[in-house]
Amino acid sequence: MALPWKLHNLLKSNNIDNIMEVKDLKPELLWKCFDEVTKIPRPSCHEEQIREFLVNFANDHGIEVKTDKVGNVVMRKGATPGHENAPTVILQAHMDMVAEKNNDVEHDFRKDPIQTYVDGEWVKAKGTTLGADNGIGVAAGMAVMIDPDLVHSPLECLFTVNEEIGLEGAQNIGKDMISGDMLLNLDSEDDGEIFVGCAGGIDTTADFEYKRSYTPENFEYMRVSVSGLLGGHSGSDINLGRANANKLIARFIWDCSQRWDITVCSIEGGNLRNAIPREAYAVFGIHSSHQEELKHHLKKYYEAILNEFSGVEPSMKLVVEKAERPEYCIDSETSLRLVRAVYSAPHGVASMSRDIEGLVETSTNLASVKMIGDNIIRVTTSQRSSVESRKEDIAGQVEAHFQLAGAKVSHSDGYPGWAPNMNSRIMKITADAYEELFGVKPAIKAIHAGLECGLFLAKYPKLDMVSFGPTMTGVHSPDEKLLIPTVDKFWRHLCRVIEKVAES
Prior knowledge:
The chain is of the alpha+beta class. It has 12 helices and 23 strands. The strands form 6 sheets. The chain has a 6-stranded mixed beta sheet with strand order 1-2-6-3-7-21. Strand 17 and strand 18 (376-385) form a beta hairpin. The longest helix has 20 residues, at 484-503.
């Protein structure tokens, strides 16, 4: 029977993607779980709703569940009969997601569900982060727990809190929350790659104390903004040469300050320590007599920046528009020190690994510039390295840099890296399962991004661990997307690994 012409044309034009929902994708069990997860608000530090959802999910399905004092959740399920003596497998994912959105999007991450949609082979969100990092890992743990056909040894699912802002859940995991010997971290982003090591990290914060001054009357005031940058994950994307919005704004303001007398009223950019900043702005004033000169200078600057990042930042925008005269500005001494410090601050790759080809060893991210109250401007940075001494060194360099600029500098506690164990039993099982299913050997790698595995190993030194997941790109930005065909592979791979452990 022939299709009605309207439906036929709809299918031919691929517009069916616009009516297909995430829950309709295959494998159905996993995608339905993921769809439910995206409906639950879960920004870092606000995981109350997703924790309640997971506890209710476990109770509804008769699964043993408990939480600890920081809010981590563990579910337990006994083995398939006959496999009770095989090693206990822990599936691990984090509950929270990075809350990033485009400026023109209205979305309250503490109240609103993520608006997902299917675009060809990808699942995306409308103007916000998708939260597949690590919602797809949470969904996989849920699906494994209720899959009636999966043959398995004893299982534990560990869902941690506040991974994105400092791995708080992993750092403070309750005593005896997990008992397994093998841990599958489901927080990686590349199909066909199995990770057996990661970088450690530390945050460095610089506070500039300033005084408010009255703005000059004979100045014109403008708002300069950078937007449309790709941003991305400060671990996995730091080597891609993407622009940093904070540095572009500081560079422009500094350049103007070398030509004319200016006053800086406000400056802000970036949000999260582990995201390369995509947007930033500053409000500044310049003497009225220099308006035309500024216009010509802006045009020249913009052309130079576009040329520098040609092929890297296709959607970059630099806009200067007239602003109302603010009542106050930042005192001139502090604004000069701040702009100089942000402009000259290190950002990007500091060194590459000499042991693993193509792996970033050490990096730093100039993450955010925020005005706090009426007298503090806070610059937040994040350092990573797979070598502990280099992590301390790059953090020290950043500290010294901002100390020279007169800022008060502090560090977070940091977190350890995860050293590869090339004799790992679960690594061999995971690699063999992938090759058995798909006919190719997976790549065994370490990752520059931070994973919770290093912290688990510090508390449970006998754990044998690997990390893997489906392909996603643009994580930690509104461009985040999840490649649909790799989700099916991820699910089949995960199930086969669990089966192989049970068989052992």
